[in-house]
Amino acid sequence: TVGCVVVDAQGRCAAATSTGGLMxxxxxxxxxxxxxxxxxxxxxxxxxSCTGEGEAIIRGTLARDVAAVMEYKGLxxxxxxxxxxxxxxxxxxxxxxxxxxxxxxxYGFNCVGMFRGCATEDGFMxxxxxx
Amino acid sequence: xxxxxxxVHGGAGVDPNLPVERQEEAKQLxxxxxxxxxxxxxxxxxxxxxxxxxxxxxxxxxxxxxGRGSALTEKGTVEMEASIMDGAGRRCGAVSGITTxxxxxxxxxxxxxxxxxxxxxxxxAEDFARQQGVETVDNDYFITEDNIGMLKLAxxxxxxxxxxxxxxxxxxxxxxAVDSPLQMNGLPLxxxxxx
Lengths: 131, 195
What we know:
The complex is a heterodimer of chains A (131) and B (195).
Chain A lengths: L1 E6 L5 E7 L20 E3 L3 E7 L1 H6 L2 H12 L3 H11 L6 E7 L4 E5 L4 E7 L4 E4 L3
Antiparallel strand pairs in A: 1-2, 3-4, 4-5, 5-6, 7-8
Helix pairs in contact in A: 2-3
Chain B lengths: L4 E8 L7 H23 L4 H14 L19 E7 L4 E8 L5 H11 L4 E3 H11 L12 H12 L18 H5 L3 E2 L2 E2 L7
Parallel strand pairs in B: 3-4
Antiparallel strand pairs in B: 2-3, 5-6
């Protein structure tokens, strides 16, 4: 699975996710990536793209939950990402990337590594795999 | 307003024994895609255009599990899926069961912009692709030798493998994937072996 989340200079958030699914999957199996609110979500507050064990991401409505705890609990972006990865995945293994309308960027995962990269307008840039 | 920001991912759950050169290859692709997004943002492209542009690039490179280089179904074919969402107005588009569209994320974008729906799947999505005139290719375009090897591994182990690359070279390095007590929906993955 691959994904990208952006907040532009006007504070508009967007998210996109694309995947081939699971190796050896049954034909017709639908994972989290095409499900808005599970693998992908964006609103006025943030944009989120998820990857990993699709069934767990669907059960946890992961992407929407990041926006929901920001909206209802007033958490910041990284707090929201950490909360959702810790509290919503049960035993599922997954990771996600997110941006907020304030120009923040965050990621979290509870499995062995995630291919990810992020950058912000003030010059921060990072690419990594492991913790 | 805090300025622009961007993040990309290429999948979670990475084989701890992934060879260093594969790690470097993945990081170079992530860096290249990040830079494409950064220059688009500096040119004031809207966020929804930037995420589509970057994911198209990721789909076209076989390093990760999307577009070319997608994981294979139990039949050895490719069935892709994608979704996109614009935070402004919460508009969204999604597709599943995509077998011939070169860049599924762009088809998802067209569902959002050019259809009255949010989600189209399988033959309906493929028909929509023809109507919209998006670029289509044979299903073979998406299939790589690496993934044919991984599917063989998965079938031998009677498992479904996650979103990560296990190099067919050095097959013994794959045992970590097979032996690890990975579960899905609380059950050992082996339960999901094809009948």
